[in-house]
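Let's practice the habit of predicting before peeking. Look at the sequence and jot down your guess about where helices and strands might fall. Then scroll down.
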Amino acid sequence: MKSIKSRLLTALFCLCLCAAVTALCPLRAHADDPIYVNKVLTTTTYTPVALMDLQYVKAATSTSGVYITEYNWFDTGTGSVITNNFTTRPAEVQITLATYDGIEFSDTVSVYLNNIPASFVVSADHRYLTLSRTYTPDIWKPSVIKNPDNETVEEGGIASFAATAIYNLGYQWMVLDPETWEHYPVDELPDRYGVTVGETGNDHVTIYGVTREMDGLRFYCTFLGAVKGDYYNADSLGATLHVLFDPNAVYPQPEPEEPAGEAPGEAEPADGAEAAGQAEGTPTEPADEPEAEPEELHTHVFSDTWSYDGSTHWRECECGERTEQGAHTLEWKLTRRATKKLIGIETGTCTTCGYTVTRETEFDGISDGLRLAIVGVAGLTALTILVLIVDSIRTSAKKRRRRKNKRSASHVKK
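Done guessing? Here is the structure:
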């Protein structure tokens, strides 16, 4: 009987404790007064650079309870919305933010864009805020992200070179003759070597009918900057053209012209075997062409740190070559739980390169108070069951000891 009473009292105590915890935790978050935002922090991924593509410039806010509803850049010279690339003219950014239910911008709110105070206007209901700031785009040289590769082709074949750069208005393919150090546009190749030059893309050049005389020429691309002048241009690395040909193959040579003022047969005879060969009409062997200097091979040295964009990561050499390129593998963790007034945030981190990205989560209808109450009730229920199990084990052990003592006493009496 005492055992049953002990169990009932233990269970009643735990249930009362659960009820007390539940009463202290409201089922729904409730507030009569709005929450005021006193400081707004916003950022953009980049500040404007002349010729930069607008798609790379994203906006974000780290202020809780606030989200971006509208985001635009304007050309202050024309007043039009910028949709493609920045120019050298000043550009104004406008970002409109809104608050969630129960949250308002205070009358003394401070607004920052990229850690610098920004101009702003707050709506009459204090639910919307539009900030603005004007930038003068930086002027950068074109940035070469891909250099041309060396080409090895057979005589009469096709050679193609490609290079890529950002922040450029155009390009010009150039040729360097390493023997004379003469630089000239690739468009002069037809007149110099009788080849055909064509283009297969915005930053490609193709040469048809390559000749042996072109062996060793170097090709590079000059990218034009946002402002005219060599200072704002950028050159890619050079690529060497190697031409494979049969040195014994001889093209027909034109007959030498007689020097003016001399009668036939009055030319001075050549010395030795050369004279004998000419007398017999035997053609002379072409002189051996000088061997081309060996090309210095580039050894890729890839960075120890990862480079990445929004979808992939890679290791990069200073020449622009990439290795180990692959898609991100994200592990998601809850950064902030969503409530009735605040949107939730999950952060994903790439397990390979460390790239991070965030995403929003919606409120699941369970307030923090209700969640705490559920956890508390579940924990106390588990504790109650554990107490009852322990008490049952203790009671069973006592009963076994009593039966054992009774049997021992009965043996003693006999």
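How did you do? Residues 26-31, 265-270, 272-282 have pLDDT under 50 and may be disordered.
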